[in-house]
Amino acid sequence: MPEGHLIHRHAAQQHADLAGRTVRASGPQGRFDARPWDGRALTGVEAVGKHLLYHFENAPTVHVHLGMQGIFLRYDDPGTPPRAGTRLRLATHEVAYDLIAPSRCEALSPARLDALRHSLGPDPLRADASPDEAVTRLTAFRGPVGAAVLDQQVWSGIGNAWRAELLFLAGLHPNARALPPGTARRLWETAVTYLALGRDAGQVVSDPNAPSERWVYRRDHCRRCGTPVQTWQLAGRTAYSCPTDQPNHP
């Protein structure tokens, strides 16, 4: 599933291409009725965690969640026929985007949009995210930090790859509990810094000097010290940690 850095990257590119323009909206697959948005001005595209929101003049917000299978295809020639399975196409005279196989593509009323926003924790890539709220939500979580950071109601936008790498960078074992506020704030600041690197690069970046490498995620041995990486199931996903660099203190 695309994590928050890629969703923000999609939002930035699509906002640059589509915002302030009248768009032709269609649902080639037949599973999404795009007529309410066809011929409307798109006012903005924003990311909130792993969610994309498309705002239009005089039409409801469109909510997209890519899930595990969803992808976007971009065409410099908007006359290019849509690919099979395209749920939604948004096009101007200069560019077209096809949305294929999302888990969600739906209209949101103002009330449902507000409910979605309130259901999500602070997003490290949003300028309006409150560090104090991020610390409060993390320290209040009754469970291991490795479960907390995957809970989108605690922090939004972080998935399994970022969980592994951020906790390594912070020297925290995924099973650690009851984090002091200072530790929680340092982890948040690490997330803010590194997710921005990932957004700009289009991939998880946990070492700016080796942007395509990982410290522990999907590795047999820690890239820093060579210790065998430990793995287990935590919050429904495989957790990764280095017992040397991330000691598990009971």
UniProtKB/TrEMBL annotation:
Residue ranges crossing the lipid bilayer per the database entry: none
Any matching Pfam family: H2TH
Annotated SUPFAM superfamilies: Glucocorticoid receptor-like (DNA-binding domain), N-terminal domain of MutM-like DNA repair proteins, S13-like H2TH domain
Leading EC class: lyase
Keywords, alphabetical: DNA damage, DNA repair, DNA-binding, Glycosidase, Hydrolase, Lyase, Multifunctional enzyme
CDD domains documented for this protein: AcNei1_N
GO biological process: base-excision repair
Residue ranges annotated for the Formamidopyrimidine-DNA glycosylase catalytic domain, each copy included: 2-106
Domain Formamidopyrimidine-DNA glycosylase H2TH DNA-binding intervals: 120-209
Molecular function terms, GO-annotated: class I DNA-(apurinic or apyrimidinic site) endonuclease activity; damaged DNA binding; oxidized pyrimidine nucleobase lesion DNA N-glycosylase activity; zinc ion binding
EC number: 4.2.99.18
Highest taxon above the source species: Bacteria
Record family assignment: Belongs to the FPG family.
Protein's UniProt name: DNA-(apurinic or apyrimidinic site) lyase
Source lineage: Bacteria, Bacillati, Actinomycetota, Actinomycetes, Streptosporangiales
